[in-house]
């Protein structure tokens, strides 16, 4: 718990904690109201399109600056007919502008509909129509991609009114007088945001987030989130994602200087660390996995005490190089090395559900994700009928938490399919041990159904990465040539360099390591030539669905030097 020496005093945080009106729809106005340093630069936003961004001092934006911009944009939106309950789209690469527009939209009582700028134009165009977006603001080239897609796929259909977000920054004017009813006073169940899921298993879903539920868990974090006056935050999360909005709202409430990085690549994260010297770095696992730790300058690295990955859990191979950097304090002692907070969650949960802290002294990983966060009222491993399974058995993860989405917009059947016996199904396969520790084994559609039973891809990937030292890997189901209707696991392995490697030798090494861990052997190993052979979606998750489609018959191929195939080993 952080009490003293923090950016926001005990008294200020008590005021926030006790205010029952505080929620996800009005967090900014509460942050502005309790702050005594409204003119202090708080949010820093380098222009990553500039060749010199990594050495230029980023301009800071204060709470007062945000307030002025929010009022300007809210006046513009109101002039376009945006009222409480409207759905307003945001489609931009600019994390700071996207945040400010989000605040303006929710301050009118409307819902911000966020879309990742990396999403394919046709998919994004369909998403905005499906979410009943009436006004849409975004980058000029992204808006053109949407317009082309609508013209091609939905000619004549009503589409949102659009506006270039950069032009608005230059032309939006303040209201001539205070706007009546502004900022909007939210009810607990007011819809404030729609932010799509990753879409790795198909069409991106549209979970909804409300004023009270999306703030659940954040009230307690006013005391537990690192917010000493020495703390500085770097976020490389997709700022169109619910996680990006969530952590930026916490930073503003707690007054933590924060750098918003629009480039989630590992190289950009390393440059931003050198530029900003943060104490905490937030990102999705792929961004952190690709950080070249050796490129972080010692004088910058020593400031880091925490890396925080979230969404999917992270692999040991990716965690260890990062926690070798920095310094942390435990029980009053300063120790070499940082901590890595591995947080498992999903778009629908609104919060990280499980947390596991790793340090240089950690000796056992094995996909352990720790224990449920405080916001989780109950978590259970369930069978196909929704019955709780005993410790040691693998099954579907079900959770009960006030932070969970109320469902998917206009898709009651999908919402119903996601709940069973009062639990929300996260789509994860888990195992809980008798000591209370939980282990993340797989996503439900990624389980490999072999002739000998289910094989879980994530523990296998953990072993493959450690055995090969690869940058990334995915273990996926491919057809078993000897057992029609069944699959075998195949590892697609990507290295950071282009050195020549023997696929057969790597397969032998991996299967020996898997055997030592008591895990099923790989049926094959394929060397990826580049990232296109191991593609990721808009949030940085490997698209295993696409790999399964591409490689379904790969074990029947011959003559590919990048592919090694092993003979099946059947249980006796």
UniProtKB/TrEMBL annotation:
SUPFAM superfamilies xref list: Acetyl-CoA synthetase-like (SSF56801)
AMP-dependent synthetase/ligase domain sequence ranges: 56-409
PROSITE patterns xrefs: AMP_BINDING
Alphabetical UniProt keywords: Ligase
Superkingdom of source: Bacteria
One Pfam family of this chain: AMP-binding
Record GO terms (molecular function): CoA-ligase activity
PANTHER family (UniProt xref): LONG-CHAIN-FATTY-ACID--COA LIGASE (PTHR24096)
Protein name: Acyl-CoA synthetase (AMP-forming)/AMP-acid ligase II
Taxonomic classification: Bacteria, Bacillati, Actinomycetota, Actinomycetes, Kitasatosporales
